[in-house]
Amino acid sequence: MRLSEQTFSTAFLAAALVVAVLSGVAGLAAADDYPSRPVTMIVPFPAGGPTDAIGRVIAEGMRPTLGRPVIVENIGGAGGSLGTERIAFAPPDGYTLGLGNTVTHVFNGAIFPLKYDVVNAFAPVGLLVSEAAIIVVRKDLPANNLRELIGWLKAKPGNALLGTAGVSTQSDLVAVFFEKATDTSMQHVPYRGLGAAITALMSGEVDVVMSLPANTLPQVRAGTIKAIAVTSTSRLAAAPDVPTADEDGLPGFVQTNWHALFVPKNTPAGIVEKLNAAAVAALANPEVHDKLVTLGQDIFPADQLTPAALAAYQKAEIDLRWPVIKAAGIKAE
Questions:
Q1: Which of 94, 168, 175, 307 is the most exposed place for a label (fewest CB within 10 A)?
Q2: Given 2.40.30.10, 3.40.50.10540, 1.10.760.10, 3.40.190.10, which CATH number is that of 134-230?
Q3: Are 281 and 61 in contact (CB under 8 A)?
Q4: pLDDT greater than 90 at residue 167
Q5: In this structure, what are the phi and psi dihedrals at residue 42, rounded to the nearest 5 degrees?
Q6: pTM of the full predicted structure?
Q7: Residues 103, 105, 110, 111, CA torsion sign
Q8: Which of 301, 9, 328 lies closest to 175 in space, CA to CA?
């Protein structure tokens, strides 16, 4: 006996409704029971670096609220895309949490041929912290402020050597944005990480590095390199004598590397809410706050710590950054 088209359509819709309801109930039940075991936070960069340090501070800070350990797993490689891919294809059950940043969830989408979409493969959990770049130069370079550095670069176009942590890293791309904003050009010299680039700067092997405060301030204080400017909207608490780029000849030049938490798409909303609450509680903890500030981090305001705020922030960053990256022809090597 053949069902009529109308009967079949009605039966199909009814079945789909039942599946949707049951899925919703299952999601609520999962959220009620969550977490029943430790959560893994994937940090898509090697252990010992600044992103790893941030991840471990946040992971420990989330533990009291979740009532379970948050275990950091480092999966480095390909500019953070290998670890981020693991997050994208993990089961959407809340037990795989990912620490992402400007590189993994903005830059890489314009640079690497990824197996996942940097937006649609994830559910946003919340923004955490951001850090400015700090422009540093070799100690004997004949420039002591940003205006003088820009003049020096213009006088020798394409000849100055810029040390970076590698192609398509934050230090590399901040320099691309700087060159565009100042109409200057430098030879980009990639190293294996910012530590190696700073060592090259100390020895005079390169002239300039667009670094992160945690990698740089000890050498600035020791006088082995010079700090020219920071790329934030305000001066760093850890280096109040270093002016912002905006103050010193480059209005509106703000470049920050933000960090945020993501989970695989289709993770139940109730679980996302629990993870967000744990992250917000961690950031409000004075001990966690102090550790992050020591690492040169600025915590996002409370009204920007929601999943919706992260989604909007990521989209705005993509709209701003991708055209510059693509126009520069930057591709993964």
A1: 307
A2: 3.40.190.10
A3: yes
A4: no
A5: -85, 120
A6: 0.82
A7: positive
A8: 328
Give the residue-averaged pLDDT of 218-230: 95
Domain boundaries for CATH 3.40.190.10 within the chain: 134-230
Confidence bin at 30 (pLDDT 50/70/90): low
Pinpoint the residues of the chain covered by CATH 3.40.190.150.
29-131+257-328
pLDDT higher than 60, residue 18: no
What's residue 312's pLDDT?
Answer: 98
Q: How far is residue 99's CA from residue 263's CA, in Å, rounded to a whole number? A: 9
CB 171 within 8 A of CB 164: yes
- What's the CA gap between 134 and 65, in Å, rounded? 35
SS (H, E, C) the chain: CCCCHHHHHHHHHHHHHHHHHHHHHHHHHHHHHCCCCCEEEEECCCCCCHHHHHHHHHHHHHHHHHCCCEEEEECCCHHHHHHHHHHHCCCCCCCEEEEEEHHHHHHHHHHCCCCCCCCCCEEEEEEEEEEECEEEEECCCCCCCHHHHHHHHHHCCCCCEEEECCCCCHHHHHHHHHHHHHCCCCEEEECCCHHHHHHHHHHCCCCEEEECHHHHHHHHHHCCEEEEEECCCCCECCECCCCECCCCCCCCCCCEEEEEEEEECCCCHHHHHHHHHHHHHHHHCHHHHHHHHHCCCEECCHHHCCHHHHHHHHHHHHHHHHHHHHHHCCCCC
**What are the tens digits of pLDDT across the range 32-49?**
899 999 999 999 988 887
CATH topology of domain 29-131+257-328: D-Maltodextrin-Binding Protein; domain 2 (3.40.190)
CB 108 within 8 A of CB 84: yes
pLDDT tens digits, 107-147: 999 999 999 999 999 999 999 999 999 999 999 999 999 99
Single out the residue of 259, 255, 256, 234 nearest to residue 244, CA to CA: 234
The span from the CA of 109 to the CA of 103, in Å, is 9
